[in-house]
Structures are given as structure tokens and as C-alpha cells.
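sorry for the late reply, my laptop died twice this morning and i had to redo everyting from scratch. anyway the thing you sent over, i finally got around to it. pasting the sequence first so we're on the same page, its 284 residues, then the predicted structure underneath. double check i copied it right bc i was rushing
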Amino acid sequence: MGYGSEDKNKVRLIQRLLQLAGISVGGGADGIYGSGTAQAVIDFIEKYGDEYGLTMCPFGENGELTYVDEKTLAAIYAVAMAKLQEAYGDEHLDLDGSTVTEKDDWVRWAIAQNGYYEGSGNDTPFGEFTNVPNDAWCASFVSWCLAMAGDTTLPYTARTSDIRQSAIDLGLYRDVRNPGSKNYDADYVPKAGDVFYRPRYDEAGNQVGGHVGFIASVVDNGDGTYTIKTIEGNMGKDSDHCGGHTYENITQDELGTKFEGFVDMDRDEKTSCSDNVDFKTDDD
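ok and here's the structure:
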């Protein structure tokens, strides 16, 4: 990963992690690896290189010779998450992944935060990660988990609509509620690792937003029904914590009553994991 990279999601992630690590990034987290990001990389290596055994990379005239290799990226992650963990220290937070056995699996990253409750005014490390603090944070939670697992399929965002629309644009959205939708897939059964989406409505029936989370497990009961567990942020009666739901004995036809659709994340191809991850949800 270096100067002029076209992977804007990955560049934006590196830029935001540098910011969270306390390094100023000229131009901000804009997804463009230019001279400002190059200088930030140099500044990080100068500050933390000895501690993490990093080798200083060349700069060039405008930073075009700089790069972020795997070792440097791991160090940027470590410093950024250590600072977040210190700022938001909580027994139910594992921002540095000390209990996450498969680091490339976003589901396990999500479950490692199970039981965490937000601070005052929707204050969470996940909103801090997407740079939209003190706001609804289910999308920020999804984004953070994907980022920690190194997945760049979807944009890192605090907006559920961004996740849904990006999945549609990428041809990954499986609508199970709306037969008239071009994305409708009546036969789709979600898999562990998929992102779910459902709209939110006010008391008058007007859509006022959406909610996203992960599918943690899908068990075929052998009688035409499934038991599905989710892990999600910003959930519960007061929309204030990381937790999950268990949907028991749900038929494929009933999926659309619980979810609008799913992002087919193809977890078994992208990660070392294809298994269900069982845990105690809020309903268990």
C-alpha cells in the first residue's frame, strides 16, 4: 500500500488509524494517499519505529516512495486500538483483539465486544473510529469490525444507508422482503458473516433510518426452519449496547418479516472461517 493507491477504502482506513494513533494526516481521512498521508506514515515510524521494529521507508520528492507494509500496518492498528482501549476502557471491550482467536473474522471481533454499553450521549469507540461520535452507531460497529478483520468490501461509515447502497452497487445485496426489487432473492438463506439490514420506522410508519448488524450463526433445523443468531451494536430497548438476537424456528418465507435483506459477505472465501459462532444473545 503506497502513494497513489486506488484502494480508497484501505487508504481511508490507514488514514483514520493514523489519526487515532495521534498522528496528524494532512488532508484528513479522504481516501487519497498523497503527500499528507506519506508524511503521516513517516511521522508514525519516527515515533513508534523502535518500539515495533519498523524500518524507515524513503520519502521521495512528494512522498511517492513511502509505503505501508504489513508490519507497519499492524503497528498502526496496535497503537490506534491501544489508545481507544485506554480512552474507553471497559471490561466488555476488546479493541486490541486479545481474546479474538481468528483475527481475520469480523464475526469474532463483533462477539468479543458483546455486553459493551455506550457512554453518555452515544459515546462509543466505534463512533470515534468512523469519526461520527455521539450518534447512532450500529453502522460504525459493523465498519469497525470489518476494519479490524482487514476487510475492505464495504465503506467504513456511520450510515446504514451507505452500507446498503454500496452492497447494491457491488451486486451483493439480497433483498428478501420486496418482490418488486431488482435485488430480490426469494431463495437466499443468510450465512454466518453476512451483514443484515432492516429499515426503522417511527410511530406514524415513516422510515427514519435503518439498522445493521452481523449474522453470527444459521442452523438448519431440518424441518424447513432455521435458528438464526445476530451480533450487533446500538441495540436493545434503549439502543445502547452490543448484543444479539436469537430467531428460533423461522422459515425462509418469514425472513422478510425480520430483515429487509442481507449483504452476501462471502466469509468462507475471504477468511479462515466458515463456521457458525455460538454465543449467548440477549434472548437466550
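The CA atoms of residues 109 and 275 lie 14 Å apart.
thats about all i looked at so far, will dig more tmrw
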